[in-house]
Amino acid sequence: MTLSPELLLTEAARRVRAARPELAARLDLTTPEGLRAAKAEIADPGAPGRTDAALAVSVVSRFDLPHWVRETCRFALSVPPERRAPWQHAFTRTVFLSGRPDNLRERFTFDHIAPDGSAAWLGPAPEGSTTALRRLLKVFDGPRALGSWQPTTVEIPPADGPGGRPPVHRELYVATASVTVARLLVQLNHLLVEAVMDGLIAPGDRLTLRSVPRLAGLAGPFAALRIDTDSHRPDELQAYAALTGER
Fold this sequence. Notes:
This protein is an alpha+beta fold and about 250 residues long. About 30% of the residues lie in helices and about 25% in strands. The chain is built from seven helices and nine strands, in the order αααβααβββαββαβββ. Helix 4 runs parallel beside helix 7. The two termini are about 15 Å apart.
């Protein structure tokens, strides 16, 4: 399997069908035009189903990729089932803000805080319930490109007590060419939390993080892909991250 334009379109359309089947019933997602129409409707605040949609908010103080990946997975694993469905319907929308979680604990009740205080998460919850926090802090601004790194393996902490499937090891490939830290957070967050919800990432699993300039030449098979609009070519799609099958 190679990441051809046809595969990118198919995967992007699959995600829309899974989260918003009513859009798939009205729009032709087999064409780039249909997919763009779906994305425009999803982003429209006045569109049906967008009123007070579910939203997660993450406050980021310091960014370290391996640590952030582990804590993002821990947060996603902590989301109770009754909150997952509305969040999936909203395409796991997450807003990243700059701030120090330790300075905000008395005013806001976070649902997950990294042990070192580098990041915290609130929600997912109705959008209106996070208005005060979003007005208080600025959007996280990571304008620089992350660059490459040596392969690093992250272990998701095992669950307390028995249960669940045996841990697995997967490779997580991340495209870095011309991708800013801020954009990487958004794209990789979607892949990780949706992989958790789909059971692809579970407590005790190990993820080896690998950087590549682009994923275009990467061979599959893949357990999950993150596909979105190319930030430099708005009429084209780009693969931002890929999660492999079990190793």
